[in-house]
Amino acid sequence: MKRLRTILTVVSGIGCVLLGIIVPISYHIQVASLSNQSKSWIQPYSIGFGTHFRAGFEDGGLWLYNYEHPWWGGTRHMSDEKGIAYKGGHAHFFKDYLWHIGGDYGFIQETLIGEKGEFVDKERDCQLPGIYYDYFDAADYPPPYWTLEISLWYLIALFAILPALFFYKSVRFRMKKYERKV
To answer: Which of 68, 83, 153, 169 suits a disulfide with 90, CB 3.0-4.6 Å?
Structure first.
């Protein structure tokens, strides 16, 4: 058990150092970009895991997403006085739940329901300091589309816990050993 704890502490410390190196580099790379020549998305600095999962670093964060590029925000729907236009007519938003602090942070889930009561689209958002999550589930283009961004500082703090505990325990042990001698 002690050997496993030591291995986890060393791996955690190495991960913490590597993430500290990645933070400044991440501000100079892009997870995905649009190629001007082929007009398609290229992902030079992200890694694909299977057909619908990619991960990469950008702007001080770890980006996880399931499409050819992460969702960075923007306009998803066009509307007029009748509601939001889609291929079957017009739809209206229903806020399933909403919780927010100020105008910047919170959770929301909205469902788009068509004129005949059919499901059109569902959107979930989470905006917290250092965490960004978007999920879209549209009836006309499966699979669902999602993006998760987590600040690298949260990951560094998480990876620093085991090494910090190790150093705390070793210093405390040495202090007790010193007190016994005195």
So the answer is: 83
